[in-house]
Structures are given as structure tokens and as C-alpha cells.
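Consider this:
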Amino acid sequence: MPDFSERPTKDFLDLHQKHLEDIWTASRVNWASTDSFRQLSYNIWTGPNAAAHANQRGQYRPPTPRTIIDHSADQFMALVPTVHREPLNADSDAHRVSADAVESAGKAILMDAGMHAMVNPWRLLGKHFNAYGYGLIELDVDLACERSRAPYWNPIRISATNPGRVLIDPLEKAPNAAIKTWKATAIDVDALMKSKRNLKYKGTFDLSNRNPWDMVELVSHWTGKNGWLTVREAGGEVLYQQKNMWGFVPFAHAFAGYGMEPVELDKNDPQYMAEGLLDGIKGTLRVQAQSQTAKHSMVMEEAFNPMGTSRDPEELVTAIEQGSILQGMPEEYWKLRLSDIPRWVFESGREVDEYIERSVGASARGGMRQPGVDTVGQQAILNNQMRRKFIGPSMQQEHIASIVLSWVLRLVDNLSVLKEGIGAHGNHLKRSDIKGNYDISVSFDVMDPVMEMQKRSMYLQEWQLGLLDDEGYWALTGVQNI
């Protein structure tokens, strides 16, 4: 492992970035393909005559790829965190009170930080897991935000940065280095440089020959404990360097678990692990789109087939354009007869739809009741079974959130600017409650009202039979007065 405690040179940064770009090249190409399916802009027709086929046959793209990614995240992955903190000494009332305070403040801070993002980061992380098979969360501290009393001041910011903008060693769960590409206006870069004017290692940024609103591409290079933060203009010189006072690289990443490395893999290539829900069915999705395009073309031709006449065609065209009455006998006008569309054409897509359903899960993710299901309870059971497919990414989501919150505890405990603590909505995270212990766990529970009712009924029966004591029943249901 390289010694990242040394201040990196420009050549070192270039070599490190090139090394990581080579590792992630194949994955990024595949993610670009996935984006075209998610955005419904992929080419239905492939091969040397694809352009001609697109012009002649048309391209109708069913929303299936977007539905798979979005509805799976919406239905089977949660975004409301539950925080748990074990007291350092379970026999000490003071320690239990401190653990409860950290739990309450930790959840409030995570919720508030998520709401400060333009898109809920946990929902977006779920979509990245489903689309790319890989996702990450970035932590930031916004000290420029309006400061209030500590229980109401939360400078913590979290975001689910697109994986295509970050380079991290795929073999490191706790990365010791990360490179992020981002953009800012020239006037914002100039303001950033002015705020860093007291740094020892600082370059220059000339705003005089730039449009203030031009977007400038920047690269941030993080290294971990005793490391550095280097910011430079992409392809240009270093703008500034400063010691990484946080003691960690603020990116937590993971694979969703849908992929699997092949046996003959002879190099570090994450493309096989970074597989999303669409990767195994992209060809099938094209077949579905081709079938739907063909059916759509047939229906349009049947509905809008041209008219014929034994009279002057120009008179017919003029009459249709003007909306006037056609002169002549009925037999002098007709619509061109097309071949009948056989029923099997409309049944031809059923097998393809079934292949897609078997690959990615039940249609219940879109709110549909499956064939043969008569009751809400039966459908809830099937939904719960389908949720098992997402246990892997859900556990990774919880682990990432636990890492991020442990970083928040570390920052509050070590940064002098946060010595008074932080908080949200009156929940105060204090050093005296953290006590130098950064261990904390975060979970995300999917809300399913039907399953919750069934669980409560089962717990009540067990309590009535004496299989659960009062404390156990309250712990499982939250109902204390029984």
C-alpha cells in the first residue's frame, strides 16, 4: 500500500488517477449502457443496418427498464434510518442515558442531512445499487451554513454521488484514497481559492480571462489517515493542498451483490461485481421493445391506412384537407385493405415479459396484484418473499449508513470547530455522550402495514400464551400498556 502520508506530487496524482481509471473503464462503459436503458434512449435495432431499421421500423421503448430500477428501490428498499447505540457500561444509568441521547441525535442528524440534499441520498443509493450494482455515499461538512444553537445546528451533508464521478480501489471496503471529479462555476472556484489564501501549499486561479459562469471541471484527491486533500483543475495544475484533518476518506462504497467474478479473472476488474438488475436482461428488453414497436406499427397502419379512389386523386386530397363532403358514389372511395393481424402477434410478447419477471421479480413492485392471488394478505406474503432479493443491497446500505454516522461521531469528538456539538430539531450530539466511542449501527426497515399487523397479532398471541414477557412484547411492538 502506498504511503499516502507524504504530500502527493502532480505526477503521483496523475499516475494514481490513471491507475484507477483503467480499473473502472469496463464498468463505466457498462454503466453508460445502463443509463441509456434507464433514460429510454437505447437503440432498439442493432447491427450494421441499425440506423436504417430505426428509420423504417420506428423505435418504441416500453418503460420496463425504468420501472425495474425505480419501483424496486421504492417498494423494497427503505430510506428512514433507525439508530442503535449500545452503552459502554450497560449497568450504568448515566451510560444508558448517553447512549439514548446519541441514538436520538444521530437519527435526527441523518434525517436532517438527507433532507438538505436535493434528492434523498438513501433513495438514490438504492437506485444506484439496482442500476449499476454499486453505490457510494459521500460525507461533507458545510461550515458556511447558518449557525444556530448546537442542538439546532447541523453542518453535516450526505449525498449519493454518482459512481461514475468517483474512483476508489474496489478491493478496499474502507478506502484509503478516493478521487472525485466535480464541477463549479469559475466565480465559485475563485471564492474557494480566496477562502484558502492562508494555506501553505496553494496555486493560482485567474478569473480575469474567464466568464464567471463558465463551468470549471475540478478533481479532488483524498488520502486517509495522516493524508492530504488535493484539489486541482482537471488536466491542469494543483489549486491547493491541505492536510486531511478528518483522519478518513469521506466515501463509503459497496457492491449490491447481484454480480459474481468469473473463475478465469486474471486482474482487478470490478465490472463483474458491479452488475445491476438490467445487465442480464438487456437483450431481452430489446426483444420486448422490438415486439412492441412491431405491434404499434401494425396498429397505426391499420388505423391510418390511406384511402383510394377511382376519381381524380387531387380532388380527394383537397376535400380531405378542407373537410368538405366527398362527391360521388360510395363505391368510388375505399380504404386500402391490409392483411389481417393474427392474434398470435399480440400473444408473442408474453414469453418475453415472463422472462423479465422471472429475472428481476414480481410485478407487485409496480403495485399490481399477481395472477391467482385473491387476498391482500397473500399478496403481502409474496411481496415479503420478493424482498429477499434485496437483502444484500439493503445490508450494504445499512453498513454504509453506520460507517457514515460513526464518522459524524468522530468529527464531533475531534474537530475543534465542532467542540460544542451539533444537532437537529433539538437533539444534541455532545462529546460528553460520545465518550470517545464511535461504534454505532443504523438500520432501515421497510414499512409494510399488512405484515406489521400480522406480526403484532402473532406477538399478542405469544404474550397471551406466556411465551413473551411484558418487556419482550413492548420491545417487539412498541406497545407498553398491555
The longest helix spans residues 10-38.
